[in-house]
Amino acid sequence: MSQLPLQERLAILADAAKYDASCASSGTAKRTSRGGKGIGSTEGMGICHAYAPDGRCISLLKILLTNHCVFDCHYCINRKSSNVRRARFTPQEVVDLTLAFYRRNYIEGLFLSSGIVKSSNHTMEQLIEVARILREEHDFRGYIHLKTIPEADPELVRQAGLWADRVSINVELPTAAGLTRLAPDKNIATIEGAMGGVSQAIVEAKDARRHFRHAPRFAPGGQSTQMIVGADGASDTDIVTRSSLLYGRFGLRRVYYSAFSPIPDASAVLPLKRPPLLREHRLYQSDWLMRFYGFAPGEVAAAAGSDGMLPLDIDPKLAWALRFRERFPVDVNRAPREALLRVPGLGVRAVGALLAARRQRRLRLEDVGRLTVSLAKVRPFIVTADWRPTLLTDRADLRALVAPAQPDQLELFAA
User: Fold this and answer.
1) E strand or H helix at 367, and its extent?
2) Contact between residue 165 and residue 221 where contact means Cβ atoms under 8 Å apart
């Protein structure tokens, strides 16, 4: 069969990569191309950066090396039994595309994943070759994120970390039972073993850098993973608990959540309907509660209903506060930081500003109002110099008073 033109292959393989959400570039080492040395950068001038609110760079060329795959994961559009158009790049073609896109100021870096072609080791070697050519032959100093293959030889995964800023291994599904049922070619022990190897290599490289200035870096942006939400019967509580374990065991930089999307010629074991995208959003909010607000997994789970699902109409912190009203109201002039972080509507920056301001004066309700988007959401849960909610915190209809109006849900991949 004749090879498709490059532009057609780019369209196929860029579209196939859109289902992988774990392509953030926060936390990378700082490298610039100032002084006429090398090309690409992870900071500085000369390229138009696009950042998400949490600082993630999104100016990346995001493609698959190939969508051919010898695995038959039911949820994957590129599984071997799927009737999709197949395409493949050579490592040199990916290098040429990356450099061409960078020189046109379209991107700042590369996110590269792949289906498994021939074998896990062969595919991993191809991915590494792309990064090696960019770094070694073209002195490319931009961001590179490689999606590694857990079934590949550990030495190959180690090589990937030497060339890439960030590496990631997808756990795919929150439970071992779900993985066994929907991805029969994958094994949870193999995936976690590979993640453990990457985690250990990152720690060892950091330790070496403390002792030897020129010791090689290893994945300075850390490692991340992704879970598919809604493809199996896992509840939000299952997902939150699993994420917490992954953060604790492997020191992950991020866990990404991707709402399951029905695919053409789908397996009969998959649900016919996609989960609400708002569910994915609530899981991200829960993730932030654990990472930045001091919530334990059990506390986040306590915000869920009896079915283990987080409410969709309100955020998890508000759901937790409504369930544990005995913890409120808190006095913004006296409460410790940990208690203020539990107040719905107060973010990390707002709490920091309140703590700094109250050293100078007694805070009033208007002072809090300057630091929050919705003062109505905050009022039932705080005490200030001029405000006390009295019976408002215990009102039976408090949820209706503080719940935001729900807009119509938008489709992520709608035309």
Assistant:
1) helix 365-369
2) yes
Q: Is 126 exposed, middle or buried (0-12, 13-18, 19+ CB in 10 A)?
A: buried
Distances (CA, A) of 327 to 213, 365, 371, 381, 396: 49, 19, 22, 9, 16
Calpha distance 337→88 (Å, rounded): 53
Determine the pLDDT at residue 409: 52
Taking residues 284-309, report their average pLDDT: 94
Query: By CB neighbour count within 10 A (0-12 exposed, 13-18 middle, 19+ buried), where does 37 fall?
Result: exposed
Helix (H) or strand (E) holding 226: strand 223-229
Token reading at 43: 């900071």
* pLDDT, position 22: 59
Strands 382-383 and 330-331: parallel
User: Is the pLDDT assigned to residue 47 strictly greater than 90?
Assistant: no
Going by C-alpha positions, the residue among 327, 351, 325, 240 that lies closest to residue 286 is: 240
Q: What angle do CA 163, 166, 167 make, to 5 degrees?
A: 90
- Type and span of the H or E element at 126: helix 120-132
What would the 3-class secondary structure string for 178-225 be? Answer: HHHHHCCCCCHHHHHHHHHHHHHHHHHHHHHHHHCCCCCCCCCCCEEE
Q: Residue 36 pLDDT > 60, yes or no?
A: no
pLDDT digits (tens, 9 = 90+) for 352-393: 999 999 999 999 999 999 999 889 999 999 999 999 998 898
pTM exceeding the 0.90 threshold for the entire prediction: no
Tokens 């809604």 correspond to what residue? 230
CA distance 81 to 70: 9
First to last CA, the chain: 31
- Domains in the chain (CATH in brackets) are 6-302 (3.20.20.70), 316-402 (no CATH)
Q: What is the DSSP letter of 137?
A: I
Radius of gyration of the chain (CA): 24
